[in-house]
Specification:
The structure holds 2 protein chains of 2 kinds. By secondary structure, chain A is α/β, with parallel strands linked by helices. Chain A has 13 helices and 15 strands. In chain B, a hairpin with a 6-residue loop joins β1 and β2. Classes of the chains: A alpha/beta, B alpha+beta. Bound molecules: pyridoxal-5'-phosphate. Pyridoxal-5'-phosphate (PLP) binds next to α4 of chain A.
Chain lengths: ~400, ~140
Amino acid sequence: MEINKYKEDYPFFKNNPEVIFFDNASTALKPKCVIEAVNHYYNDLCVNAHRGDYYLSYKVDVEIEKVRKDVAKFIDCEENEVAFSSGATESLNLIAEGYCKKILQKGDEILISELEHASNVLPWFKIAKETGAVIKYVPLENKRITVENFANAITPKTKVASFAYISNVLGYKIDAKKMCEIAHKHHIIFVLDGAQSTPHIPVSMKDLDCDFYAFSAHKLGGPTGVGVMYGKAKYLQDCDPLVLGGGMNKVIEKDGTYTVYNSVRKFEAGTPHIEGILGLGAIIKYIQKVGFAYIQKKEKELRDRALTALKKMKHIEVYNEDNEANTIAFNIKDVFAQDAASYFAKYNICLRAGQHCAKLTDGVMNTYASVRCSFYFYNTIEEVDKFIEVASKGSDFLDAYF
Amino acid sequence: MPISDNPSLIREIIMDHYEYPRNKKLKEDQRYVKVNLDSESCIDNIDLQVLVEDNIIKDICFDGVACAISTASTSIMSELLKGKKVEEAKVIIENYLNMLHGEEYDEELLGEAAVFVNTYKQANRIKCATLSWSGLKDIISKDK
Ligand SMILES: Cc1ncc(COP(=O)(O)O)c(C=O)c1O
């Protein structure tokens, strides 16, 4: 049997020994060090941040700022470009609402794609409505966003472009660096949704040169409810906070005037999600220790094995065998995705059924559902083999119901 | 023998209604009340259309994409409740929902719908089996 040394770091497996967790794209499991970091706050610190009048509070501030530094190193940017948020969703809303809305005028264009997660669609719809800007979609090529199609979709009115670096739909990775370079030639603000890329590939803000980047801690195995908005310092200057309150204002006058800190702190009104931030620090350290080289090697090994087997099964259809990521989107032929996911669930295999695919036909959105299987480095070959065995019998899917 | 005691018959009925759903076609008729039913917990998405006249459910039809349990339960409901008086239908729906939630009910009233008797053991499918039934209940309750 394969010994996966990382598996031992995850209490989840001890507490759920029968569960095979292949829904890592939804959220990743949490290693002990993350739970310990959260407990550390509640056991040892407990007090509020930004109240540096006594030692413990000062220590909370120091630990939070240490995480900011660690995040900056992790995604290769400056500390003053890292704002904590509640997750990728809030970060994307903040980017759209706080900055992009201010630069958009009636008729301007926002470029996205049909592969985007709702969190990278709805905030743009909202500000488009409010400013009179227009949403445009980059035409897909074999389900992919290509550099050429992106370049061709740009018009003099394009002001903002926002894409998932790796899509949650099918796991295709975009050539973000090249696209960003083209965007900047046209003075377009280039936003990357890093929710699915951050857990699996090393990213460098300096190298990619994107203007904003968003991710959630929980998809790496950190706590839920905490994430990061990266923005280039020059844009954060002009970016308005979505939420106002304590901890972010300098001066408040009775007549209603106020000034806010001219730093990332202005995006962090209220008592922060302190234990979440400390947990984020822990998962970053942990992921760096495991290393992206190992993460990618292991994911590829698991995915290749599953894919090779699935492709041999006549009753299985795979939609994304040419992707770069850790996910396989498939269906059992003639079985609704949700019934298929329930069938796997009966064997304690956690997969996700969803409308992962959007297809434009005659200008109408026809959505169809598929089952998504997504791996992370703590998964094992044995788990994949069990999955293959269950998949091979999948034609009798209603068994799960009886 | 009641349907609920016959596993192979249960399977046969569900598969039949899933593969050949009855009344699965929407009508172009303004007199129908139409609602879209979807679920926050899954990807079932059904449009349900109902025609109530003289306090009688004259027609029920539907369309959409949904799982086997959801599709079959809607199909069975459409056959069972078509032609029933609104008050009768309400009683049947109440009994059906009770069955789904593991409460007391009268199987006699439920006809083929009794095939969903064991759903309460599979919490994640209860929503599928009740989506349309709850939707219809809302429509005919609102009419009053
Ligand atoms: C591509 C992508 N963007 C954004 C999100 C939103 O992340 P969160 O729910 O953590 O805010 C997700 C999560 O599924 C995602 O996959």
